[in-house]
Amino acid sequence: MLRPMKQISRAELFLGFLKIGLLGFGGVGPWARHVIVEERRWLTDKELAEVLGVGQMLPGPNTMNAAVIIGERFQGAPGVAFSLLGMMAMPLVIVTALAAIYDRFASIPEVRVGLIGAAAAGLVLGTALKMIRNIKLAPMAFVVVAWGSLRSPCSAGRWCRS
Amino acid sequence: MTSVLAELARTFAMLSLVSIGGINVLLPEIRRQVVDVHGWMTDAAFAHTFAIASAAPGPNVIVVSLIGWQVAGWAGLLVATLAIMIPSCALLTARVLARWSDSEAVAVLKAALVPLGLGLMLASGVSMMRTVDRDAFTVAISLATAAFVVASRRNPLWALAAGTCVNIVALHMS
Predict the structure, then answer these.
(1) Total tally of structural domains belonging to chain A
(2) Residue A105, SS3?
(3) Which domain holds residue A56?
(4) Disulfide: which of A55, B73, B90, B115 matches A66 by Cβ 3.0-4.6 Å?
(5) What ipTM was estimated for this complex?
(6) pTM for this one?
(7) What are the residue boundaries of the structural domains of chain B, listed by start?
(8) What does the pLDDT read at residue A160?
(9) Cβ of B129 and A99 within 8 Å?
């Protein structure tokens, strides 16, 4: 595979990941694709799928792994720092602010029911389907996709329902 | 205080090493460590923490940062976040990997991980739906959002906002 020829500055990395983090309701996967592939064209669908695949298989939070790989690819170690900082900065501020006002915040019915959940789940599903459509997979690969799907992280789902 | 921080660091560093496939897979074990083993939080407080982290944007891993914050303030947040990131940062050795990536073996391996990664993403979408969709109506919202993303190149924020608004209206009418 060819190394990317695109030049992406540290500031661009930081701002791109800032956007991914800030918009990443229900997980950052769909937003990573939207910003990186669709909007800024840093990577193709296939390249992003490779990065996500490698990120999934290595220990550590997979989106962090993906950010590390992408940051490193374009700007080396400083790129990693800018990417991670960009992705984490706003979510950390928001989550601690929410926690600080939790008592008031939790009484809003919209929050308790987790109304954003249904749409966010659709976002993840749709993004996966779109990437599958855009990447020309070998027939055998669909078997692997199916196998990956069955290895569903539903243990988390069970816990959430209990 | 320092001993709590040290325990936070140790606990999440250990967890991060086994966190293959993402934080959601690890949640039951995080709950066991935080609630049962260390007694840092009650079950209810843990559930609240998880709910807050889900309501905020950002990577799922911020639930770990928030646990650190709840247990030991800002120092706890920093320690827990860094500890869970250790393997990712160890990926800096990916520099080495990147140099290999011109070799054919690594190219084949990376290509082989593509369908697996996509399958896992598909699975997490389905798994999220199973967790949050409580009736046929919310399933329809999820599917409609998915269809928008597949069919349109527009910013998915539109679909997210529309789906959430419909959901809010439905909640108030029911």
Answers:
(1) 1
(2) helix
(3) 10-161
(4) A55
(5) 0.77
(6) 0.78
(7) 2-92, 101-173
(8) 35
(9) no
